[in-house]
Amino acid sequence: MRLSRIAAAAAVTAAIALPAVTAPAASAAAPAVASDSCHKTDPYKVHHASAVTIRSKASSKSTALGVLYRSHKFTVHKATKYGEWVYITDKTTGAKGWVSGTYVYPVVYTCLH
Q: Are 68 and 50 in contact (CB under 8 A)?
């Protein structure tokens, strides 16, 4: 039993160490791409839905004022404390109101150096 635990621990350690040993060769091939994407910022976008309802208050029970489609451009003015709701202006239709933060959030880039 103890020998199999040692063998399993050695296999896990080797699997973790292998990517770290080979990573510098892979990242050396194209450093400009990683550098450019690290400094890129995108506006908020609609994710995981084709459309989101624009509401009068930060509540799913409030009056619907319009629909924010994935293809629409919009401006974010503010958000609730934990980002559950986001106050936006739809640049396509001019509608202003609250949309669920579950579907509207900024694009985030992860940089690996």
A: no
Residues 69 and 91: their CA atoms lie apart, in Å, by 11
How does pLDDT run across 18-47, given as a tens digit for each residue? 444 444 444 444 444 445 556 666 678 888
* Number of helices and strands in the chain (H, E): 2, 7
pLDDT in tens, 85-108: 999 999 999 999 999 999 988 877
Q: How far apart are CA 98 and CA 64, in angstroms?
A: 9
CB of 101 closer than 8 Å to CB of 47: no
83 conformational bin, left if phi > 0, alpha if psi -120 to 50, beta if neither: left
SS3 at position 4: helix
